[in-house]
Amino acid sequence: MSTPTKTRTRKTGRPALYPQVQAQIKKMIKSQGFQSGGQLDSEAQLCRRFDVSRASVRKALQQLAIEGLVVSIPGKGHFVNNAKEGTPANGVILCVLGTHNPEALSNDSYVADIVGGLRSRLANSERRLLVEAVGTSQQPASNLIANHLQNLAGLIVVPLGEQTAEDMLASTPSNLPRVVVGRPSHKPDIPCVYINHHEALSRATQHLIDMGHENIAMLSISTTSTGWAGEQSAAGYKAAMRNAGLDENRLAFNNASNSPEANQQAIEQILRDHPDTTAMIIDIFQDFAALRKLESLNIKIPENLSLVLVDDTEAARHHNPPVTVIREPTFSMGQIGGDMLNELLAGRTPMPRSVEITVELIARDSVRPASRTIKSVNRNTTPKTDA
Fold first, then answer.
1. Looking at residue 177, what is its pLDDT?
2. Do 203 and 294 fall into the same domain?
3. Is residue 382, in this structure, part of any structural domain at all?
4. Which domain holds residue 119?
5. 276: CB partners within 8 A, 6+ apart
6. Residues 303-322: what's their mean pLDDT?
């Protein structure tokens, strides 16, 4: 089989092979006559087949999961989902993402995990799952939903940023099976599942406090971008610091944008404003960019700075040393949301109606006791340069 043609990513200039791998897997599914439910080769086998890295294969499978052609189930593998074109007799299930960013479907792992979890639970349904983003600020979620009402069997809303579940569900029929994923629902008749972000950041902060750290900084994305989740994360950090009698004013938000460059500048600003910081929690999407920034500032992890990231990513697992993380089970959240909708479609009431998912602290090698932290001579945040 031919090797995919190499393209280049816009930001890094590195070869981006996953679009070609994605196309090759589609071709393979069609040419080999895969039936719905048929299992694809393992990731390792696909790597050898296409002569690409596992990262490229995983990204391609993630894209196919978003399209609905593949269902990925952790611990079991990747399966074909040959949904029929057109509108099934039993209607469609619509998943609306509360974002104006058209790239969220492909570039946001949080969204991809939720959608993957939903598909894994709805794959055997006779109804087709459609996933759509709000699109523009001039297109309210209620308008998007209204366009599908004639054939709509069930609705899942995923509020993001400043979007609220109530706004997204406005004007939807009360007899329509509806589930909220990612936020609490303030309507008792609408089931919801969400991650306890307050607990996540409180646990991360407490872990550092237990290791003897007092000067703990936190970087988060602007609450304008993250909405309720960002507010809960900041509150969790502050609560843990306040309960320990520590300064909670080392909290910084990247208010500019969620670009790698803006996040790197925010990290540098925190360390410039608080040079005595011995530990940091970073709650942003581009953790790889954050790790690269700390490296460029000659800050060694954990010798000069203990570090905790949210969430458990490839960058965190494969960094040297591996980084302590708060693991947020977003795929499981999507699965629970799918189970809730299946119950509603079957005429049953999901119990419980509100599910709060707890997080897990994965302790690795990026945190050391505060007493062993070396005050770095490079806290002037002057990036190192190549010789």
1. 94
2. yes
3. no
4. 92-190+330-358
5. 215
6. 91
